[in-house]
Amino acid sequence: MTVQPNSIEARDAAYQLHSYTNARKMEAEGSLIIEEGDGVYVTDNTGKKYIEGMSGLWSVAVGFGEDRLVKAAAEQMAKLPYYHTFAQRGHTPAVELSEKLIQMAPVPMSKVYFTNSGSEANDTVVKLLWYRSNALGKPEKKKIISRIKGYHGITVASGSLTGLPYNHMSFDLPIPQVLHAGCPHYGGFAQEGESEADFVARLARELDEMILEEGPDTIAAFIGEPVMGAGGVIVPPEGYWKAIQDVLKKYDILLVADEVICGFGRTGKMFGSETMGIEPDIMVMSKQLSSSYIPFSAVMMNDRVYQPIADETARIGTFGHGFTGSGHPVGAAVSLENLKIIEERDLVGNAARLSPLFMERLNAMAGHDLAKEARGIGLIGALELHQQGEAAGVAGAAMSAACLERGLIVRNLGDTVALCPPMIITEAQVKEMFDIYAAALDSLSF
């Protein structure tokens, strides 16, 4: 498209550096300006309406324009617009939200620490793990094992945990304390003739070998998403998480479940850990926690993690970590109301009930000439397309553009085109979304 002088698109290109964007391309073409949102739909500044098939960034569980969240924010803003949680200070919304999250946890948890984004939360997890190891008198126990294609954020520490090339290139990442184990994508990484069971056994064996090679006493934790999101919507094979947890228990290594995308119903249960049979020591939550109406995130830890940390704060005299916005009262109030909506409207149940239709429509496209593989669970899925030519991502970008032209916003992750609609979506809207998606796919020619 051509950017008109002095248009909002031109001003955007003139003054902003955008995330996950080719800056030179944006200077030439401008950006899509979204002005309004209502339910599963958003509208751009020309009046064109789209199904937001990605819930923004995997995150707007209750849809756009939810009056109850607007009201919760306004009421809290009027009552106490800001306060901190430093130096034994607190406020009611953060207290009530931490209590609610502990009650909702799929396994026994002890404490909640609030941050402002999934990236900040995972960055905090790295520091907590290092702090804990020092508290236990194990200063060598600092390495964290993540996975190839995992996504855990973009700070120096969380970006290192992420296992995607674009998040490392030219940033001098990852840092030395982070290792990356194999990706649980059977369709992408299985060896010739290898069954799913054999693939799972090999990944567990390779993890065991990595731990032994590095030294079990140097490994603090293993981190993983129950279902990978930004790596291409990768649902691990049956038995994968049990096999991984058996290895971790063997060497007394903590398990961190990154629930930033999976948490609060996306996989058809409240947490992805429940869907996948994971018993984490630490859980990281954001996105659907507040439906991204306001930046907010949380780290939840069990007593095994918390007690050594608490002892170390007593020895030093303080916990020398915190953000100005940690436990922000408006964010906490909005998150509390958001969780009430998810429960009252049974949005987790809605995801579970609509999942068979969602997966049926997605799987129906797996036989398309351009399709390589369909993957998904709950209300998150993706179609991976065959690479076109030397450069990866050509097919995915073309599919994303074809969907946008027809009124559907998706996200192409290379040649994988993801869908993750708001959990309020109806059966009719799921059909509408996939009708557009299928038409876009049929329109492609290379």
UniProtKB/TrEMBL annotation:
Swiss-Prot/TrEMBL GO biological process terms: biotin biosynthetic process; gamma-aminobutyric acid metabolic process
Pfam families listed in its UniProt record: Aminotran_3 (PF00202)
Top-rank taxon, per record: Bacteria
This protein's record includes keyword Membrane: no
Gene3D superfamilies attached to this UniProt entry: Aspartate Aminotransferase, domain 1 (3.90.1150.10), Type I PLP-dependent aspartate aminotransferase-like (Major domain) (3.40.640.10)
Keywords: Aminotransferase, Pyridoxal phosphate, Transferase
GO MF annotations in UniProt: adenosylmethionine-8-amino-7-oxononanoate transaminase activity; pyridoxal phosphate binding
Cofactor section: pyridoxal 5'-phosphate
Oxidoreductase keyword on record: no
Family recorded in the similarity comment: Belongs to the class-III pyridoxal-phosphate-dependent aminotransferase family.
Name of this protein: Aminotransferase class III-fold pyridoxal phosphate-dependent enzyme
Source species of the chain: Thalassovita mangrovi
